Amino acid sequence: MSRPLFRLCLATAGSPPARISVRNRHLDALADKAALRGSPAGDGQGPLAFNRPTLRQVMLAGLRDHVHYGARLTAYRHEADGTVTAHFADGRTASADLLVGADGVNSTVRRALLPEARIEDAGLRLIYGKIPLTGSARADVPPWVFDSIFTVVTGGPGHPHVGLGPVEFNARPEQAGPAHVPPVALSPVDDYVACMVGAPSDHPAVPPFEVLRALTPAQLRDVTREVLVGEWHEDVHHLLDLWDTHSLFALRISTAVPVPAWESRPVTLIGDAIHAMSPVLAMGANTALRDAGELTHAIAGAVGRGERLVDAVRAYENRMTDYAFSIVTDSRRTGQQRVGQR
User: Fold this and answer.
1) pLDDT at residue 41 tops 50
2) pTM of the full predicted structure?
3) pLDDT higher for 202 or 40?
4) Closest CA to 38 of 30, 28, 29, 48
C-alpha cells in the first residue's frame, strides 16, 4: 500500500481509548487492560477502529483493472513450468507464479493444500449489528461504552455475552477520500457502535445455524431478546433497543486447529483460510493484515537476493504459523474462560 493510501486509512479510522474491558451482566468490572500500542508507521499511534468496508475500499484503490468478482474456485493445478493454474466454476482459468488462498474459513485452497487441517465449530453463535451515532443518538448510548476500544459484557462461561466496539471516524470517509492523492471515492458512513450478541450453540433460544442464518433481521432481533433474559443491566437492554435492525446478521464462530509444518509450494494461505479464530481478542482481521505484510516482505526480500519464490513462501509460512497459531490458542483460552467457547 502506498503512503498516501496508508495515511487515508489512518485518517478515516477512529481512535478509541486504548483499553479492552470485560464486565459482568451487572456491569461490574472483571478485567480492564491496556490494548497494544504502537502502529506500523512508528508514530506512537494507539489502537485504531476501522470500518471494514471503508478499509476495503482504500485497499482496493487503483486495483479495479486487476480485481475480478463472481468466480468460485473449484481446484488448482501445478504446471510443469512451476506456475499454478486456478480453475473456476464458470469454466475460466487463471495462471500465476503464486496462488494465495485468502478465501476464508471454508477455503477451497486449504482443503486442497492441507486436507489434514481442521476447522472446529467453537460452539458459539453471534448476531452482529450496528448502533448508529447520528445526530443526538450518541447521547443515548451509555458513556461506559466509549471507555474502551472493545468491551465484553459476559454472563459467564456457557452463558450469553454482548460485545461492543465504538467506531467514530477521525474524518468522514466521503470527505477524506477526495483530499488524498490519488483521490479515492469512499462511501459515506456515519459513526456507530459495533454491537454483537453471542450465545452457546446449544442455548434453548438459538436455533440450528442453518435456520439462524435464514432468519430475517427482525427475527434475529427477536432471538437476541430471548437470549438475554434474566438479570442483565438495564443499559444492555437499552443498547439493543438502539440497534439498527436492518444491519443484523448471524455468524457461526469457528477456530482452527494448529497444523504441523508442511512442504512449501507456490500455493499458500492467509487469514481465516489457515488460522480462523474466535473474535474475543478482536485479532482476526489484524492477523490477516499482518499475513499480507509478512508475505509481501518475504517475496520482496527473496527477489532482492535472487532466491526462489518457494523460499519466500517457506519463510512466510514459518513466521505466520508461529505468531498466528499462538493467537488462535490465546483466543480459544480466553473464549473458554469468558464466554464458554469450546
Assistant:
1) no
2) 0.90
3) 202
4) 48
- All three cell numbers of 210, joined, read 442453518
Length of the chain as a residue count: 342
Pairing of strands 267-269, 99-101: parallel
Is the pLDDT score of 248 beyond 50?
yes
Instruction: Report the C-alpha gap between 167 and 149 in whole angstroms.
Output: 9
Distance between CA atoms of 253 and 250, rounded to whole angstroms? 10
Can you list the alpha helix ranges (DSSP code H) found in the chain?
3-11, 52-59, 108-113, 173-176, 209-214, 217-227, 234-241, 272-275, 284-305, 309-338
42: which strand partners? none
Instruction: Give the C-alpha separation, 169 to 13, whole Å.
Output: 5
The pLDDT, as a whole number, for residue 36 is: 55
Q: Are 341 and 335 in contact (CB under 8 A)?
A: yes
- Please name the amino acid found at residue 158: G
Average pLDDT in the 45-61 region?
A: 89
Model pLDDT, residue 337:
86
Strand pairing partners for 320?
Answer: none
Helix (H, G, I), strand (E, B) or coil at 172: coil
Q: What are phi and psi of 276, to 5 degrees?
A: -55, 140
In this structure, what DSSP letter does residue 158 have? T
Do residues 267 and 295 make contact, with C-beta atoms less than 8 angstroms apart? no
**How far apart, in whole angstroms, are the C-alpha atoms of residue 38 and residue 48?**
10
CA distances from 183 to 137, 174, 187 (A): 31, 11, 13
Measure CA 188 to chain center. 21
Q: Does the bond joining 115 to the residue before it have cis omega, within 30 degrees of 0?
A: no
Could you write out the DSSP letters of every residue in 184-200? --------EEEEEEEEE
